[in-house]
Automatic annotation (TrEMBL):
Gene3D superfamilies: Rhodopsin 7-helix transmembrane proteins (1.20.1070.10). It is a multi-pass membrane protein. Keywords: Cell membrane, G-protein coupled receptor, Membrane, Olfaction, Receptor, Sensory transduction, Transducer, Transmembrane, Transmembrane helix. The chain crosses the membrane at residues 27-49, 61-82, 102-120, 141-162, 204-226, 238-260, 272-291. This is Olfactory receptor. It is found in: Cell membrane; Membrane. GO terms for cellular component: plasma membrane. It comes from Suricata suricatta.
Length: 310
């Protein structure tokens, strides 16, 4: 595309993970199974929790919602990526690009708020076990769920409205495998000072709020567990948090690497890091929560037995 300014380009070209034609089919063969494993794995988690009365607790309620959001999260990205692997043009319309960006930001932030809700649940379960049922009642769980969806979607809407005000020029090639905020901003020739300030203020507040909840919850958990006299009691308390901590580390570690840096520093390495929290983490979540959780293993075994008996 030429260097004439385009307030609203009709389409973008997604460069993808590689621009070499010989890489496209092997990449398709890699990411199609990843997508299927992610969807099936998270769907099994949801069905196991819904079918087992022992898993009808706040912890597993939030886990089932997290699995649902993870399915939505990867579906926003991978199907279009798979189509582009087999297409020569690799185009995405302007409207489709903004829509993809909206749901990517919304579902990604919903994930972080759900992880915070799960951390709060573990904090109450370990620090206030005798008041757990009273504190984590149905009303409070629904309130946490509403917050987990409303704030991310409002945050995402703000960013899309600001992006829609930008003028694009020079190129319509997005050096990424989906319409992420940073690569799209790099194509803009108008001032995006307001957008960057918003990212570093409102965006930072939205991201740091759930992260702060997680940190504070686990500090309180650590203090409480260290007071437990027996080693067996300490191990049991920590074992209930292991899966959640693993997912939090993967999710926030990769996000911090990609986004907490200047826009000018965004490189191909960040595309690889993005794969971790957009694709690999949702795929690994079912394995992490099922392999390290005795109740979840039993729930999945019961589900499989019910399926075989039908």
């Amino acid at each position: 595309m030429g260097r004439s300014n385009l307030t609203r380009p009709s389409e973008f070209i997604l460069l993808g993970l590689s621009s070499r034609p010989e890489d496209q089919k092997p990449l398709f063969a890699v990411f199609l199974p990843i997508y299927l494993i992610t969807v099936i794995g998270n769907l099994l988690i949801i069905l196991a929790i819904r079918s087992d009365t022992r898993l009808q607790t706040p912890m597993y309620f939030f886990l089932s919602i997290l699995s649902f959001v993870d399915i939505c999260y990867v579906t926003v990205i991978i199907p279009k990526m798979l189509v582009n692997f087999l297409s020569e043009t690799k185009v995405i319309s302007y409207g489709e690009c903004l829509t993809q960006m909206y749901f990517f930001i919304a579902f990604g932030n919903t994930d972080s708020y759900l992880l915070a809700a799960m951390a709060i649940d573990r904090f109450v379960a370990i620090c206030y076990p005798f008041h757990y049922i009273t504190i984590m009642n149905h009303r409070r769980c629904v309130l946490l769920l509403i917050i987990s969806f409303c704030i991310p979607h409002l945050h995402s809407l703000l960013h899309i409205l600001l992006t829609n005000q930008l003028t694009f020029c020079a190129s319509n090639v997005i050096h990424h495998f989906f319409c992420d905020d940073q690569p799209v901003l790099k194509l803009s020739c108008s001032s995006h000072f307001v957008k960057e300030i918003t990212v570093m203020t409102e965006g930072l507040a939205v991201i740091m709020t759930p992260f702060s909840c997680i940190i504070i919850s686990y500090l309180r958990i650590l203090i409480t567990v260290l007071k437990i006299p027996s080693a067996a009691g300490k191990h049991k308390a920590f074992s209930t948090c292991g899966s959640h901590l693993t997912v939090v580390t993967l999710f926030y570690g990769s996000i911090s690497y990609v986004y907490f840096q200047p826009l000018s520093n965004y490189t191909v390495k960040d595309r690889i890091a993005t794969i971790i929290y957009t694709i690999l983490t949702p795929m690994l979540n079912p394995f992490i929560y099922s392999l390290r959780n005795k109740d979840m293993k039993q729930g999945l075994t019961k589900l499989m037995h019910q399926v075989k008996c039908q």
